[in-house]
Specification:
173 residues, alpha/beta, three-stranded mixed beta sheet, disordered N terminus
């Protein structure tokens, strides 16, 4: 499963369970300041349903006003990837992570360290561009209470205090 949280919200895209590259909540966190984020996420969800993922849910509002997207359990990875390729254009910045400045990358590293120190020893460091790819699985489930608690505790380390970041989730401080 691959979920990427970028400007669509602190752990905005939670594509839990399958592997699709989308920027948003669950995986590594981050919310967005875009005024039409909820509307864009709703259009994205509709597009996903129209393009082969009929059970794709509407977004839910996150704690900081970000849009939170999730993948239906058992969703077919190929169908998700194909639908995402068609629909990601509807997301802020075309579903691509925003370029991070060096200070924000340092904050992402602190967030990752904090997540590991708060019960998620397998939480990855950010990539060179600052994005965080979270491998789903029993030890790193973005939907688990343990993950959510660590994320809430560590959000202060994210750029903008977690009000606009995104996360990548991939299957397989």
């Amino acid at each position: 499963m691959r979920v990427r949280t970028t400007a669509l919200g602190l752990l905005l895209l939670v594509l839990a369970g399958c592997g699709s590259g989308i920027d948003g909540d669950q995986g590594a966190p981050g919310p967005s300041s875009e005024p039409n984020e909820q509307e864009a996420a709703l259009e994205y969800s509709r597009c996903m349903r129209e393009n082969g993922v009929p059970d794709f849910p509407d977004p839910e509002p996150g704690e900081n006003g970000e849009a939170r997207l999730s993948t239906p359990e058992g969703a077919d990875k190929e169908a998700m990837d194909a639908a995402n390729a068609e629909c990601k254009r509807l997301l802020p910045n075309g579903g691509e992570p925003r370029e991070m400045d060096p200070e924000d990358i340092v904050k992402q590293r602190a967030f990752a360290r904090c997540m590991r120190e708060n019960g998620l020893p397998d939480f990855p460091d950010p990539k060179p561009d600052g994005g965080i790819a979270v491998e789903g699985g029993p030890n790193l489930d973005p939907l688990s209470e343990e993950f959510k608690a660590a994320e809430q505790k560590c959000a202060k380390h994210l750029p903008d205090g977690g009000r606009g970041a995104t996360t990548d989730h991939e299957d397989g401080e």
